[in-house]
């Protein structure tokens, strides 16, 4: 399955207490929401996760990517969760990209336990994320 074309605009904002970093990400191919919806990928360093708050029809839910540090310079990308009504829309790809960009920014290496993140890395060779992976 080919990845959908995504357009990313990422802005690092000032860190808030608990070291939460918020990234504004525009995804033009996100078909459930309006075409110009800005999704925010939040990196919560205290809880070791990336998340996106999603608004659906009368409810609010979150997509989450969880990780843990296995050493000072290594992490394990454990899992991604996307609510069923938002699956197949590129939300997990946004979370995966944010996590991989975190590895680059912090000069970290990663084990990948999550099948989706493994797939994302394999299907985006131009971003050179494979150099960050420990097999």
Automatic annotation (TrEMBL):
Residues 42-134 form the N-acetyltransferase domain. Pfam families: Acetyltransf_CG (PF14542). InterPro entries: Acyl_CoA_acyltransferase, Gcn5-rel_NAT, GNAT_YJDJ. Gene3D superfamilies: 3.40.630.30. Belongs to the NATD1 family. PANTHER family: PROTEIN NATD1. This is Protein NATD1. It comes from Salvelinus namaycush (Lake trout). The gene is LOC120034557.
């Amino acid at each position: 399955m080919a990845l959908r074309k995504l357009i990313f605009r990422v802005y690092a904002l000032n860190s808030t207490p608990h070291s939460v970093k918020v990234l504004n990400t525009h995804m033009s191919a996100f078909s459930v929401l309006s075409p110009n919806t800005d999704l925010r990928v939040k990196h919560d360093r205290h809880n070791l996760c990336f998340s996106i708050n999603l608004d659906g029809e009368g409810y609010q839910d979150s997509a989450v990517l969880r990780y843990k540090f296995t050493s000072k310079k290594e992490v394990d990308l454990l899992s991604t969760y996307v609510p069923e009504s938002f699956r197949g829309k590129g939300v997990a790809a946004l979370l995966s990209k944010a996590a991989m960009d975190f590895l680059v920014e912090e000069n970290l290496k990663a084990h990948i336990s999550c099948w989706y993140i493994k797939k994302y890395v394999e299907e985006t060779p131009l971003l050179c994320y494979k150099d960050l992976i420990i097999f």
